[in-house]
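Hypothesis: this fold can be encoded by more than one sequence.
Test: take the structure tokens below, design a sequence, compare later.
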């Protein structure tokens, strides 16, 4: 037997005597790489979250989320014009009422004149083509900061919470919201919200459910932004255990059966295996939320010069798309589109 020297192997595919695979051929130039690129971030699928507070003329930076601010109803319209000009097609609204307005039952959440309702109306008046999605939860509206109603034993009362969510969803739809996005993780909320919307004639209002939402440390900065940290306990009796993937499939299946139009996995980076599995099990559009802590980590490392922000953001959003996301909710939406859209 003749011994093959490395030199002969290297010549192999030229001489045809010994073939080796050369995947590098398809990476040889930018044009070649573009030709064979498998994943692209859909610019029309990026959603920008917006925090809306009471008052007038407010633009209040959020310390743990550099580049993100809280707006009042008037300034949020201005921000939406900027987002629109950058090419953002959809915003996700979070309402943050004054502390004094909060109570145990999230009453201000279904005030027809509440923050989200007013913001949605003002945005739709100014920019009718911009999609307005409203996060639907109670934690920003309850004085205890939980996403549901707390019963006498200090536990979250699932079914009473459903009534509030359904009632609130209706006021959002009446205000012009295109998509309601329940993020509370109560059981049965999608069915309850769908029924309430349909009974009132809002058959066109879509539901994007936070189907697999994990009890995550990566929501830290959001809770500062939204003043929604629970006063006692945590969210582990309603949000999912980060250890569970099969359970995510169950949650998605239930939401699909209940009538969700779009399902979501949240957070993103630590859950891309879940995103991949959910993508395979449903035909519905899949949204993935790149959350506040994920944003803060990238920003903090970039500020210190430890990573290149633009490249890290591109890589992150591409990875989320590669895992199967059709829609990516991200605080980077405006910057990313400004930078990448010519
Ligand atoms: C409300 C809600 C939260 C987020 C979205 N909707 C916070 C939470 O569940 O504690 C987190 C978003 C983010 O971190 O960017 N329930």
């Amino acid at each position: 037997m003749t011994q093959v020297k490395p030199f002969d192997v290297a010549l192999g595919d030229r001489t045809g005597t010994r073939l080796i695979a050369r995947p590098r051929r398809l990476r040889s130039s930018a044009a070649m790489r573009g030709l064979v690129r498998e994943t692209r971030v859909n610019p029309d699928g990026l959603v920008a979250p917006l925090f809306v507070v009471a008052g007038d003329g407010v633009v209040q930076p959020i310390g743990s989320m550099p580049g993100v601010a809280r707006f009042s109803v008037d300034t949020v319209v201005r921000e939406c014009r900027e987002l629109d000009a950058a090419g953002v097609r959809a915003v996700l609204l979070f309402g943050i009422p004054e502390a004094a307005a909060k109570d145990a039952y999230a009453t201000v959440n279904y005030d027809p004149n509440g923050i989200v309702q007013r913001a949605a109306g003002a945005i739709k008046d100014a920019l009718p083509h911009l999609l307005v999605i409203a996060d639907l939860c109670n934690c920003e509206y309850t004085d205890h900061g939980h996403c549901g109603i707390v019963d006498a034993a200090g536990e979250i009362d699932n079914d009473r919470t459903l009534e509030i969510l359904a009632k609130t969803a209706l006021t959002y739809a009446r205000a012009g919201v295109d998509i309601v996005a329940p993020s509370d993780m109560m059981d049965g909320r999608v069915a309850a919200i769908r029924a309430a919307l349909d009974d009132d004639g809002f058959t066109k209002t879509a539901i994007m459910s936070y189907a697999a939402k994990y009890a995550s440390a990566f929501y830290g900065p959001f809770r500062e932004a939204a003043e929604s940290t629970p006063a006692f306990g945590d969210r582990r009796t309603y949000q999912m255990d980060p250890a569970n993937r099969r359970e995510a499939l169950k949650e998605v299946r239930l939401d699909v059966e209940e009538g969700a139009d779009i399902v979501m996995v949240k957070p993103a980076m630590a859950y891309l295996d879940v995103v991949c599995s959910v993508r395979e099990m449903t035909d519905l559009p899949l949204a993935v939320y790149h959350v506040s802590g994920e944003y803060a980590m990238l920003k903090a490392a970039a500020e210190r010069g430890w990573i290149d922000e633009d490249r890290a953001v591109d890589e992150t959003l591409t990875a989320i798309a590669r895992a199967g996301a059709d829609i990516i909710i991200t605080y980077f939406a405006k910057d990313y589109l400004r930078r990448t859209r010519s």
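The two ends are 60 Å apart (CA to CA). Residues 211 and 252 are 5 Å apart (CA to CA).
Hypothesis status: open.
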